[in-house]
Structures are given as C-alpha cells and as structure tokens.
Amino acid sequence: AWTVVQATLTPAFELVQSLEKVQEFAETWRKQELFEGNDAKKHVDKLTTSIEQAVDEGNTVLIPIAQEADLPLKPIRGTPFEKLMVAVLQNTSVAGVYALHAEPGVGKSTAATLAALELKGRQPTDVIVLLQNDFERQLESFFCVSNIKFSAEIARPFFTSLKDKGIRVRLILDNVLDSGRINELLGDRLRVIARAANDNLHQVIVIVQSEAAANEVGDLNGDTTQKGNQMPAECYRWSREEAQELLNSTKIRELLKQRLRPDEEADDLNGLLAEALERSEIPDKHGGWRPRSTIRYIMTGDRPSAPLPIPGPSTASAGTTASPITWVRQLVFDEAGQTYDESLPALKIKEAVEDVDDLKKAIRKENPSSIACDAYQLLIYSRDKDGEWRQEEEDAAVSRGAT
Fold first, then answer.
1. What is the pLDDT along the chain (403 residues), one digit of tens a residue?
2. With contact defined as beta carbons under 8 Å apart, do 90 and 122 qualify?
3. In the chain, N or C terminus with fewer CB closer than 10 Å?
4. 62: three-class secondary structure by DSSP
C-alpha cells in the first residue's frame, strides 16, 4: 500500500479559495503561443521558462482547462480516494504511468482536485498538472499545440527540459478513459507520455472506473506503465459519517425542505435526512455510499443499485460475469395503509428477472421456507417518486435498484 506522508489536511474552505489562484495560472497558460510544427526547441524553451517562473511564484498546480464543477463550495475532506491520491502524489520513488481505479460516482474528480490543491507547494519543485475528461483536448492545452499530432514531438523534450531544471511533473489524467477501452491511437499517445515521463523521472497517474481498465493501462508498455497498488474499488465508497456530512450540507437540506409543507418542523426534515441516509446506501454486501447516488436519490427518489461491470474490457479481462441483483423486502400492511418496514431483512434475488412474474418465482425459489403461498399469489408493489405504493402487474418490467 502507499505510505501517507502528509496526515493533516488543510481546511476545505482554504482549498476552495486557493483554486482562484490556480485558475489565474491556467488563464496565463492558455495564452501561450501554440506550436504548429515549426521550431520545437523554441516552443519547449518557452514552456519550460513559464513553468520555472510559476514555480518561483509558488504556482505549482496547473489545471489548463479548469473544472470548477468538480470542486463543491464545501467539499468533504479525507474521503478514501482523496487519501489514496495524496499518498500516491507524495511518493517520490515512482516514475512513469500508474493507473488507479474506483467506482463511478465516488467523487474521484473532486478527490483528485483536492489532493492536488492539498499538496500544492509541499515539494517546492514538484508541479502537479490535472487534465480531466477529453484526453486529446487536454493534451493540446497542456503542451500548447495546435493539433494533438504534435504532442509526441513536444512531450519528450519538454519533460527532459524540466528534469534538467530540477522540476518534477506529476501529471493526473482523470476521466480520460471512461469508455473503458483503449483504442490503438490512444494507446500510442499514452505510451509516448509513459516513456517520456519514466525516462525523466516524472509521474503520470491515470484514473479509471474499473480494475480491468487499470490493468489494461498497466499492461500498455512494460515497466513504464503499471497498475497502482491499492485496495479493491468498493473500499473507496464513502463511510456513513461522510455521507451524513454530505446530507447535512446546506444545498442538500434546502432540496429536502422543498418536500415539507410550511407547517412541518425541523424534526420532519431530520426524518427525511435519516431516511435518505438509509435508502441511499449501496445494496450489496459491501454497503457504503457513493455521493452521486446519494444526491440522485435526494433529487429523484431513485435508490442506488449495486455496480454492474463497466462496459469494455472490464468483464472480459476480469474473467467473470455479474448477474443483475434485485433487493426485495416484505411490505407490512397496518390500519393506516401500507408501511415499508426497514427493520425487516432484505432478500437478495441473484438471478436475472425481466418482469414481475419472474420476480415472484425467484422470491419463492430463494426463500421457500418463509413464503407460505405459491408464487402466483404474491403481490408485488413498487414505490413511486412521491412515496406512494402501487401494485405491479405480472408483465411489468423490474428495474434494478427499485424499491
């Protein structure tokens, strides 16, 4: 595992404030003259001089195309993936490409931004560069080239020049492989960067959404590309305390208040918060929370689902397949109507079901000892976004993650 050197985290509001200076650096960087295929040495010298000047001024984080949306006003600090990023970025003994992975929706982009800002200036001659989303567009922006085809011509001499000046680059590539596939052209460009970084002791971190994708990056170019040493993806979900902190944010509380009538009190809001916390937990054996799924539940009422394999090489590379999972609970009727009793244990239906008729048979098959009737006699209800229960017909489709 990675060793965490910096244990104390800067208060969130200070990091948010520091982003403004990072954006000013990004604006200056975007004004660089673009390389169009003539005099590569002159272009590299200009880029190197700009980085040297930035280092002298303490501007050691560069986000060429700033992603303001990936940093909330009051971000939750110290999440598992942020800790991983901080540990990797502080490791001065690694060079070349390292691939890290975690599930979609756990806040990888926010964690990467926070980690970069947290370590700004820790090592005075380390420059952290964060490139997010469109890989080719971001490379054009970082290398200041008019066309992505020129990036290979600039990468090696630029990285060599920075090494000669005693400057180490830590380049983060975030969300650049969301499809889970590395085509031939993308693979070639990653190899160029990997070799140039490795040979000049720079570090490139590629953040992806599955272990299979991380393995594919790691296998690209021998020892210059590796899969990072980390815990399984589900370990980077948020804890109950972190999810609770998210729900206590002003934005979330305002969203929940919209569901209350004017005469309802704070206790009713607290009840909604408690309900949201329980209903947005990931319904598998690992549990935990994904912030995007929690916010989605607040906005739509849709409960999160257990993860499916990421499209692309994930399933094939892992050598396994995963069946959709449906969770059901007994609906208890009382004098007031229908009550969904959370205290009753949930039943996990592992086999794939297409409709309500399939679901009835699967419930009867999964737990025959506690079902005192035939499958056709079971009644299946689902809850809509308004919280009302409705009975489903036999041919109704079953949605994963539904209640």
1. 444 444 577 888 888 888 888 888 999 999 999 999 999 999 999 999 999 999 999 999 998 765 554 577 788 999 999 999 999 998 888 899 999 999 999 999 999 999 999 999 888 999 999 998 888 899 999 999 999 999 999 999 999 999 999 999 999 999 877 655 677 888 899 999 999 999 999 999 999 998 989 999 999 989 999 998 899 999 999 999 999 999 988 788 888 877 777 666 666 788 888 889 999 999 988 999 999 999 999 888 889 988 755 444 444 444 344 445 677 777 766 655 555 555 455 677 767 777 788 888 888 777 666 677 777 788 888 766 555 677 888 777 776 555 5
2. yes
3. N
4. strand
Cα distance between residue 128 and residue 117, in whole Å: 9
Distance between CA atoms of 367 and 372, rounded to whole angstroms? 10
Element (H, E) at 167: none
Residue whose C-alpha is closest to residue 403's, from 393, 387, 243: 387
Instruction: Tell me, rounded to whole angstroms, the distance of Cα 289 from its chain centroid.
Output: 12
* Tokens, residue 93: 């003994």
For the chain, what are the domain ranges?
Answer: 12-236, 237-308, 324-403
What class, spelled out in words, does domain 12-236 have in CATH? alpha beta
- What is the identity of the amino acid at 284? D
**pTM, 2 dp:** 0.73
List, as one string, the DSSP characters of 313-377. Answer: HHHHHHT------EEE-PEEEETTEEEE-TTSPPEEE-S---BHHHHHHHHHHH-GGG--S-GGG
